[in-house]
Write a structure and sequence with these properties.
Layout (H helix, E strand, L loop, with lengths): L4 E6 L3 E7 L2 H6 L7 E3 L2 H10 L4 E5 L1 H12 L3 E4 L6 H13 L15 E7 L5 E6 L13 H5 L1 E7 L6 H16 L3 E5 L3 H6 L1 H11 L2 E5 H8 L4 H8 L5 E5 L5 E5 L2 E5 L13 H14 L4 H16 L14
Parallel strand pairs: 1-5, 1-8, 2-6, 3-7, 8-9, 9-10, 10-11
Antiparallel strand pairs: 2-4, 6-7, 11-12, 12-13
Helix pairs in contact: 3-11, 9-10, 11-12
């Protein structure tokens, strides 16, 4: 990881196992539709054996964002933890193929490479059951200080607030980035994750985050608000830029005193919402790294989000022109 990069991502290095299911499948297995739930290795094996067909691809929220950034022409690096096993090698090769720098040594002991079981229903909603595995072992020692200082933006994945060592790695990375005059961006990732760690999230956002990405449910959870506008009022001024995705309603950007509403791009058919937020962040960060105004960044994010929900999976086979 050498030279000045546009974005350094730090997140859960996962392999996504994506399956088409119906609502009865979710009910049968006690799954909360639309949520991300952490599970153990035994539960992961049980659910994996219950699906008839699946597609296995390198994934993880921030990893998806970094791959799209690289495809768009941005210089991106990634920090995440895998084990030196078959899935770990798959993850590393796919990141290299995507053009993303990934130099973190694989663990030779401990839990297996993490995987996220993604169950997609006909309405495009995805329900995720996540076995963090090796991803949860990310610790401050894995943070490459040179890489942090050499990235215009450091982008952090909120899912990693669950394991304490990874949370400590976030604080280390944010402190190094700001000491070097860099910016810190973060995705809240999941409203249930915010509920579990609300106090820590609020502290981190207020003190360490310059650019915040979230969806409507996540900002409601962070602000402990019932109404969206109440949550927006509480969020205003917490960081330089806050980009809130609103599904079919588009997105809302708060930047200082400015409030910008971005319309969602028309989509012929929603196939799979997996990766919509990840790709929105890709477009937005791509624009920020090139000095674009927040409104333009939001348009870029909206374009990539519209592209990815019209297909199966979170990685685009081609990258539309953004500039």
């Amino acid at each position: 990881m050498t030279g000045i990069k546009d974005v350094l991502g730090i997140g859960n290095a996962m392999v996504d196992v994506v399956s088409d299911v119906n609502d009865k499948f979710l009910e049968k297995h006690g799954l909360t539709k639309g949520a991300m739930t952490l599970i153990d290795a035994e539960r992961a094996e049980s659910l994996y054996s219950a699906v008839e067909t699946c597609v296995e691809v390198s994934g993880g929220s921030v990893a998806n964002t970094m791959a799209a950034l690289a495809a768009a022409g941005a210089k991106s690096d990634y920090i995440g933890k895998v084990k030196a096993d078959q899935l770990g090698r798959v993850f590393q090769k796919e990141m290299e193929r995507a053009g993303v720098g990934f130099d973190v040594p694989a663990a030779i002991s401990g839990p297996a490479t993490g995987r996220c079981l993604v169950f997609v229903t006909k309405d495009g909603q995805r329900t995720m059951q996540t076995f963090l595995g090796a991803a949860a072992t990310l610790a401050p020692r894995d943070v490459d200080e040179e890489a942090v200082r050499g990235a215009r933006f450091v982008y952090l994945e909120g899912y990693l607030f669950d394991p304490p060592p990874a949370k400590a790695a976030f604080y280390k990375a944010a402190e190094i980035a700001h000491a070097a005059g860099r910016k810190v961006a973060m995705s809240l990732s999941d409203s249930f994750c915010v509920d579990r760690h609300r106090a820590d999230f609020c502290d981190f956002v207020e003190k360490h985050v310059d650019v915040l990405f979230a969806n409507e449910d996540e900002v409601l959870a962070l602000a402990e608000a019932r109404e969206f506008e109440e949550a927006v009022d509480r969020l205003r001024g917490q960081c330089e830029i806050c980009a809130v995705t609103l599904g079919a309603k588009g997105s809302l950007i708060l930047a200082g005193d400015r409030r910008v509403e971005i319309l969602a791009r028309p989509v012929e058919r929603v196939v799979d919402t997996t990766g919509a937020g990840d790709l929105y962040a890709s477009g937005f960060l791509y624009g920020l790294a090139r000095g674009k105004e927040p409104a333009t960044c939001g348009e870029m994010g909206s374009r990539l989000a519209a592209e990815v929900i019209g297909q199966f999976g979170a990685r685009l086979p081609f990258m539309p022109e953004l500039d």
